[in-house]
Amino acid sequence: MEPTGVIIKNAWPYQQDKMNLPVHNLETAIPFYETIMGFRVVSRQVSPHKSATLDKNGFRLGLAENGGDPTQDGCFFEVDNLEKAVAELKANGLEKDVSNVDHQKHGDTNWNVFFVVAPDGLCYCYGERQP
């Protein structure tokens, strides 16, 4: 099956683990990821705490009621096409404006980036490598 939508090529969590991103309430967090970001829930766990694994075109991330502070965590997503990512989020109903696309350099890599903060407080930076 061909992937649809924006392809997440890689991801780096701000803290330690993109499979254990903290949320205060899993059930109220999930709809934003499904509706706006285009993920789908592929599994749920109740132990050691309530958590869910989400998938988008083979890329996975996890949300967990693990006691962490969502405002201090999130992920940097390397995407195949930043303009397409912005358009997809808006088409999916993102009501607030995404931050202006910015240019950043990390090491020898130039990026075009923008940020989205989920209602749960997690911050996501979408980035596309530039020549």
Describe this structure in words.
The protein is 15% helix and 41% strand. The protein contains 2 helices and 9 strands, in the order ββαββββαβββ.
What's this model, at a glance?
The chain has 131 residues and is an alpha+beta fold.
Based on CA inertia axes, which overall geometry fits?
A: globular
* Strand residue content: 35-45%
Annotation, overall tally of beta strands: 9
Helix content: 10-25%
Compute the number of structural domains. 1
- Known CATH architecture: Roll
The residue ranges in which pLDDT falls below 50 over 5 or more consecutive positions are: none
CATH superfamily heading:
2,3-Dihydroxybiphenyl 1,2-Dioxygenase, domain 1
Strand order of the largest sheet: 1-6-9-8-7
What is the N-to-C order of secondary-structure elements (H for helix, E for strand)? EEHEEEEHEEE
Show the helix and strand layout.
Layout: E1 8-13, E2 21-22, H1 26-35, E3 40-45, E4 51-56, E5 59-64, E6 74-79, H2 82-91, E7 102-106, E8 109-117, E9 123-130
Parallel strand pairs: 2-5, 6-9
Antiparallel strand pairs: 1-6, 3-4, 4-5, 7-8, 8-9
